[in-house]
């Protein structure tokens, strides 16, 4: 297949960063040359293990996801009945855990766990980035940081969904949806921590802020905490769970959050640029892909067709 | 414990049974029959009633009818139809009265204008600041009276006379809150483990029971739970019709009501204090914790002042101190935080809050429907190219696509 300029630059930088020697480089280029031009044919014809094929998330990220998962749901479960005390479901939900005397303690304790997991995440990010910079493998395109490309990808993807394009855009390790979701969640978390702390330490916040805005600030926090909670819960329930449980190809569950691995077809479809890096970094993956393509007569198709004619 | 409960239930049911008997007797009086039949009925009634009174006196009470009021008032049909067409009953159940807080007060100590028997029609009700002639204050030796508290109350924002007409009559009088329940199972049968201990020295079981009732009632009722206090205040301040009526009345008179008067209960319920109280958590501020002085609390709850009054604990100058009762680190800034958050006021923080709420709602709706739309759009788009829902047999691209390019 002929790589786009973007994919070519990803390939070149990956080859350089991994210090690939000439023989191996030739092998990689040959493999890519032999792939079908239509990327759809690649991801439709590979073999994938539902539990995942290609390593993606470290144990730290998986742990942080579990921590967020558990704390978020517990916090919502203990917090929402307090805010919506008038609703018919509030009282039973609150009583299940022993009433507000108990849930307020649970809520605060779990909040501390959630803040710790945030700090753990930040530590992982900083340490990981520093180690990559030192080893010379850092690439901003491979991070969660939003780039202009993501806006273009989003537009192209919408056009594909509408049927106006034959291919999905070539997206990187984190696609626009993931970046959006990640920053929405971190923004939400920050809001929850600040507003939550303004309930727990109202005197502290009042003494820090100037008198002219302390009242407005408290009002805003009182409003933000439940609103953000409900919004986050709805986004998780309707969008995140759709993406990882209900979306075609992911049903009934995507195992990445436990195994740390993504399926091959998913990686090629939604994270093609990352897959190119995988081909550079994982000789085994090159072998497997070549075998899969050859067994279906899709490898070196144009060359075969030439020979045939 | 079980026997205690059984006793209470037993005494309770005896009282109920008696009142039911009385109800059964009433219709008999209405039936027009020959004289003999009525006479028989009257004799039956008198005999039965007297025995009932005697029986109950023997059982529990020291109630003595020295003034002979019961001669007439013991009859259940002692009632009249008022000019407004309502029935007013003048029936006294001796055994019930004997268990109320005023059981030792002779009738005429409160019903002062009754001078002779049979008495003239009563024009004026009783007032709680009347001095008792028969009951002396054991501490001072003076005639007992609720005058101190009635005077304090009349100075408060709630203050009113016993008989009021018009808008003032909406305000609570003593008996609005102190409804003096006439039947309390705990008082009917004081706990055996307490009484049996007192009797050792005080010997007279009846005396001990009276003392138990006297003291325990006061201990039980002086400090209500937060939830009960909020419920009590909400009975009027949460009544939308009543509140609107008073706001309009104040406008006509050109008086100024507190900014939160209209939403006091609703906004309290929305605050953290309110939510916790609502769930039965006691260690949080209820109405009286802020609106009454905590020093001399029991007098102070009777003389609640509006927030514009410099003596009110929620007056601007007193707020910091009031907050500090619980929030020991509270300062001026903290005291400026709104304890009654609401979007329904037209000034101050309420406006800001209502604007912020609108923006939040809009944002949330946009985000949720936007993402939901994207999810549906994405599903349609990918299904068009032949994706199945489940990854099975090593692929999820098993379906045939109209665009071709199918799995080989």
Describe the structure.
- The complex is a heterodimer of chains A (309) and B (408).
- Chain A is mainly alpha-helical.
- Chain A has helices spanning 5-17, 22-34, 39-45, 59-83, 90-96, 100-135, 148-161, 176-200, 202-208, 211-246, 256-259, 264-270, 272-281, 283-295, 301-308, and strands spanning 54-55, 261-262.
- A two-stranded antiparallel ribbon of chain A has the order 1-2.
- The two termini of chain A are 20 Å apart.
- By secondary structure, chain B is an all-alpha fold.
- Among the domains of chain B are: 1-101, no CATH class; 244-351, no CATH class.
- Chain B has 19 helices and two strands.
- Chain B has helices spanning 2-30, 35-59, 70-73, 94-97, 107-110, 147-155, 174-177, 185-188, 192-202, 205-222, 226-237, 240-253, 264-270, 272-278, 287-291, 297-300, 319-324, 332-335, 349-384, and strands at 79-81, 87-89.
- Chain B has a two-stranded antiparallel ribbon with strand order 1-2.
- Chain B is elongated, with a radius of gyration of 33 Å.
- Chain B starts with a helix and ends in a 24-residue tail after the last helix.
- In chain B, 17% of the residues are buried.
- The model of chain B is unreliable at 1-14, 23-42 and 48-62 (pLDDT under 50).
- Chains A and B meet through α3, α6, α7, α9 and α10 of A and α14, α18 and α19 of B.
Provide key terms for this protein.
A: 309 residues, mainly alpha, 15 helices, B: 408 residues
